[in-house]
Amino acid sequence: MGLFDRLKRVVGANVNDLINKAEDPEKMLEQAILEMQEDLVQLRQGVAQAIAAQKRTEKQYNDAQNEINKWDRNARLALQKGDENLARQALERKKSFTDTSTSLKTSLDQQTIQVDTLKKNLIQLESKISEAKTKKEMLKARITAAKAQEQLGSMVVSMNSSSAMAAFERMEEKVLMQEARAQSTAELVGADLETQFAQLESGSDVDDELAALKASMLPPAPAPQGQLPPSQATTAKPTEPIDSDLEALKRQLDQM
Fold it and tell me: Is residue 14 over pLDDT 60?
């Protein structure tokens, strides 16, 4: 392929692309109907002119027929009067109009066919224009719907859906964290109550044990007169070791 052919193809492709981009369907439909209406006007003018020519030819044909009939009567009259020469002249005039009438009849037949064809074309064009107008409204509605759908699609595409979903996920995570904190707080409150009750129960056990220990360390009740208490029969325990043991116990408790 030569350089000129390649350049021609590139230029043609670019021109076609520009034309396709410049074509607005709605405007093109309006322009097409305007052109059809202009053709309709011209066709109506053509039909009117054809009908006028047909009328003139028809009138000329009728006039020629009248002249034929007139000169035929004149020839008959001349023969009746015995003027054969005058009758011959009348027949010559009749023949002239007969030839004219024949030519006019041929033209009239052709014009009649032409007018009928133009009328049919006119009716068809009017029907096509009416159909085109209906289609134009339908196509305009479809174009409007398509544009709306395209705009909606562009809006959906332009929306940052991932960012919006990320925001929803963050909010959901915050709600979950808040619910977890609320649940943990409730558990801590319940645990604190359980601890308090456990302490009360443990404290009660210690108190009971302390009371029992105190009771066991109380001196025995005095014996009846005349009898010695069993404790007097034994040697009294020294108090100093007990005091030292008590001090050691306090120190152990302080270190705990």
Answer: no
- Is the Cβ–Cβ distance between 126 and 40 less than 8 Å? yes
- Side chain identity, residue 234: T
Task: Give yes or no for residue 191 having a pLDDT over 50.
Answer: yes
List pLDDT tens digits, range 205-218: 666 776 777 777 77
Mean predicted lDDT score pLDDT of the chain: 77
Q: Are 97 and 67 in contact (CB under 8 A)?
A: yes
Nearest to 127 by CA among 138, 115, 116, 135: 135
Residue linked to tokens 């004149």: 74
Residue 104: other Cβ atoms inside 10 A: 21
Q: Which residues contact 45 (CB under 8 A, 6 or more apart)?
A: none
Instruction: Specify the length of the chain in residues.
Output: 256
Nearest to 19 by CA among 5, 149, 11, 133: 11
C-alpha span between 244 and 135 (Å, rounded):
119
Question: Considering the chain, what percentage of its residues have pLDDT values greater than 70?
Answer: 64
CA dist 254 and 105 (Å) reads 148
| CATH 1.10.287 is the classification of domain 13-157 | yes
